[in-house]
Amino acid sequence: MFRYLGRVLLYDAKDLKSKMIFERAKRMKMKSGVAAHEINEREVAQEAGLVPPDCVSTEEFEENRKKLLRMLETQKLNRISRREAFLTWQAGQREKGAAQRLARQTRKQEKYKRHHYHSQKGKLLPLSFTDERDLDSPQNSVFSSNRLDSPHPRTASSVTDFLRRQRQ
């Protein structure tokens, strides 16, 4: 009995929760067939995860710390790569939206021009009107040989020439 008390004192529970966890792990060890006087309480505490910091070896601590740092680094890289992928996707969506918006605007402009200007595909056709007298003159003849040599140089007609001629 005195030996049993000596072994119990090897592991000192800091609080009630850790004491209950230790007792449960100890009972499980006893149920597995190990005698009470053969139970190493330090091993039971290690298996239960209750080992105080002074009993942990520095090699294990450094190894666990390195594993944790590697895990954090990989998580950081994964986060960065996911963010970059999202930003490229977002830029693509923005470009696609801009292209759709431009196409929609051009369709609306063409429709407006077709409706208001009575032309096709939104293109305005420049028209110039001439008098019938000018059409009969030899200088306007397509097959006229003396077109360049005519004594009356032809003035360029603009779109509004027909309005000026009617007023005269």
Automatic annotation (TrEMBL):
What segments bear the compositional bias annotation Polar residues? Answer: 137-148
Q: Region Disordered: what ranges?
A: 106-168
Q: What segments bear the compositional bias annotation Basic residues?
A: 106-121
**What is this protein identified as?**
Uncharacterized protein
